[in-house]
Each structure stands twice: as structure tokens, then as C-alpha cells.
Amino acid sequence: MPAHIANIKAQAARAGRAVRTVINPVIVSRDTEREANAYADAISRNAIKGAFGGFDSDAHAWRGRLDASHKQGLGLGGNIEIVGTPEQVVEQLAALKKAGIDGVQLGFYDFLPDLEYFGERILPLLKQAGLRL
């Protein structure tokens, strides 16, 4: 990814422009790695009912996408999937920053509860790490 980002920014510079790179990961996080992976697996199987105000997931549209950017080929959406504990999510976001990503547009499966979890469990860790999104 760093070489790809450098290439994008170099092309922009040759055109007299400066650009910032943004990626849109889908965040799947729970207190334990086992819980996070089980939740991600359930999403990819479209086995979680009641999310989206009673509508089923559109994760089936992504099923089978096996490129390296999609963890275990789950196909949850976004450019990449970040699955893990809050600490693992922070590590993965820090790795994206180190790779040259300037910002993220976060996505979640069941947006409101997953966003609340992010705010309560992950955001404080990001602040402790001095990582700005």
C-alpha cells in the first residue's frame, strides 16, 4: 500500500495537485477476538436478523470476494475489513496511517450499535495512542 499511495501522490504532484488518501474500512469489533470473528462470520453468512431496522444484510453481495484486502474473504464491504478486539482495531488503523493513509471513512454493519461500541471502546484507545482519524 505505501508504494501505491506514493504513486498516487506523485501523479497528482506532476499534475500540480496535492491529494490526500482516504480509505473506507468496515469495522467489526467485539471484546474478544473470538466474538469479533463470530460476529463477522455471521454477517457474511447473512445470519444476523433485525439489523438495519429489520432488513437483512447486503453482505451476500460481497460474498466470495477473495482478494487479499478482505479478511478471510468475508466480503463485508468497504475497501478493507478491520476485524478484532478494540486493541486490534487500533493497531490496524495505526498500520493504515503508517502506510500513508490520510483518513478513514468508517463503516459498520449495524451502524448505530456498532458506532456506539466504537465510541465507547475504540475511540478512547485511539486518543491514548495519539491517533487522529
From TrEMBL:
InterPro entries on file: Luciferase-like_dom, Luciferase-like_sf, SsuD_RutA_monooxygenase
GO function terms (MF aspect): monooxygenase activity; oxidoreductase activity, acting on paired donors, with incorporation or reduction of molecular oxygen
Domain Luciferase-like: 4-102
Keyword entries, A-Z: Flavoprotein, FMN, Monooxygenase, Oxidoreductase
Top-level division of the source organism's lineage: Bacteria
Protein name stated in the entry: Luciferase-like monooxygenase
Species, as recorded: Caballeronia sordidicola
